[in-house]
Amino acid sequence: MTREERKLREAIIAKCRWMNASGLNQGTSGNISARYKDRMLITPSATPYGAMKPEMIASMPLEGEYGSWEGPLQPSTEWRFHLDIMRGRPDVGGVVHTHSTYATVLAIARKPIPACHYMMAAFGGNDIRCAGYARYGTAKLSELALQALEGRNGCLLANHGMIAVGPNLDKAMWLAVELETIARQYYLSLALGGSHILSEAEIADTAKGFSTYGLQAPKPRSNAKPAKARTAKAAAGRHVEKKRSRTR
Q1: In the predicted model, is pLDDT for residue 225 greater than 60?
Q2: What integer pLDDT is reported at residue 247 of this predicted model?
Q3: Which member of 78, 143, 150, 180 is catalytic?
């Protein structure tokens, strides 16, 4: 195991522990995977996160024998949709699956989430779809999940939970938090009698804004002096001039 791979395995475990401590998940019901070169690293089945060690993380090939794995413990029972997502979506480097409360409540009611908040733009469209129901760990569930994730970075799983995907592990977890947040906000807005839904144009405008969000303004030219420095120098010059005038 390379140092880079060990670091990624440790990050998976840290994310598992954090999502339980934060309330985003409960027990061992959730699972996390990350892309590492030509393989997928995924949490093992039915293993408490507190007892998990880097060596326990299962490793599965993205190509070759489908479903084969390496490690001392079997991969999560949900390995199919993790693997199928990564095989079908080269843009995905991390997958987070949780049974977070509000996302799961909406999944139980089989309610997709409309564009009730502008942060929906982070998921690639105007809604979060709810995939149809199939028993956990099955090929059918994986098929339904991939359909719901088409053009999206998150979905609900009917009577089950949610999935968030991202280009890396950090972004996938960030989107999982965002999805649960939007689910809670939508649920509470329904309790007030309903939601005002944003239009496709408004979500598209937000997505456009996201494309430059956080970009820094260009740095000043190297020969340009900062305003404070110029002001300080000028003040010093005036002070010297006053001192000279007193001694004349």
Answers
A1: no
A2: 44
A3: 78
Global pTM?
0.84
Based on the number of CB atoms within 10 Å of its own CB, is 108 exposed (0-12), middle (13-18) or buried (19 or more)?
middle
| Category of 71 on φ-ψ map: left (φ > 0), alpha (ψ -120 to 50) or beta | left
Average pLDDT, the chain: 90
What six digits make up the tokens of 200?
A: 């496709």
Domain ranges, ordered by start, for the chain: 3-203
Catalytic residue status for 202: no
Residue 184 vs residues 97, 98, 145: alpha-carbon distances, Å: 17, 15, 21
CATH class as words, domain 3-203: alpha beta
Question: Both tokens of residue 80?
Answer: 């199919």
**Is the model's pLDDT at 173 over the cut of 60?**
yes
Rounded CA separation 125/98 (Å): 21
